[in-house]
Amino acid sequence: MGLELYLDLLSQPSRAVYIFAKKNGIPFELRSVELLKGQQHSDAFAQVNPLKKVPALKDGDFTLAESVAILLYLSRKYEVPDHWYPQDLQARARVDEYLAWQHTALRSSCTRAMWQKQMMFPVFLGEQVPPETLASTLAELDRCLQLLEDKFLKDQDFVAGPHISVADLVAITELMHPVSAGCQVFRSRPKLAAWRQRVEAEVGKDLFQEAHAAVMKVEDLPPADPAIKEKLKPSVQCLLQ
Questions:
Q1: Helices in 9-88 by DSSP H: which ranges?
Q2: Which positions fall inside the GST C-terminal domain (predicted)?
Q3: Which of 35, 122, 131, 228 is the most exposed place for a label (fewest CB within 10 A)?
Q4: Is 0.90 topped by the overall pTM?
């Protein structure tokens, strides 16, 4: 059996892995794991990833969790163009710096914004979000966007320098989460908007749209089945805090 990628394109790190593999012509079997149906909690998936999260990778008898680890594994195994994860010590360090920062900063605020703003909690789970909670989340998102511009993007074309890297894929897939919930992430940020256009151009518009088609239709999701709602509630309740 060749390379298998366990993904749900509603998941931002799954989208980053999917775009990277497709863009670089890496052959893989897509194994769909529908998070909103609780399939990540199945015994079968737990054999692949006991953490019960996507993305996950299976390469023969080798399994791997965590999106950053998967992206770097793929970049090394398939000898993709150097700009994705540069050999140069300092250029690679800039990519690593962003990947280390985003986990507890942009990832958190983008996920919370999507779940809290008008869709996932209010519609899918039928939970009302206190206005002060949403306001705090959107303020934190704005702070993280400013840091993305000032600390990482600066006056460069891409997050870690003059060329696109895995850092840009991780960043753009995060930002499309609040965009799907109606947040105008790029409207008052011309530098960020121009960066998005460059990333889309490098990835290819068709692939970018393909990867984000599901999340951009998330507002059409019907309310969750009561059994699914109860199964998911413990794992998403932290997104209200």
A1: 12-23, 43-48, 67-77
A2: 88-224
A3: 131
A4: yes
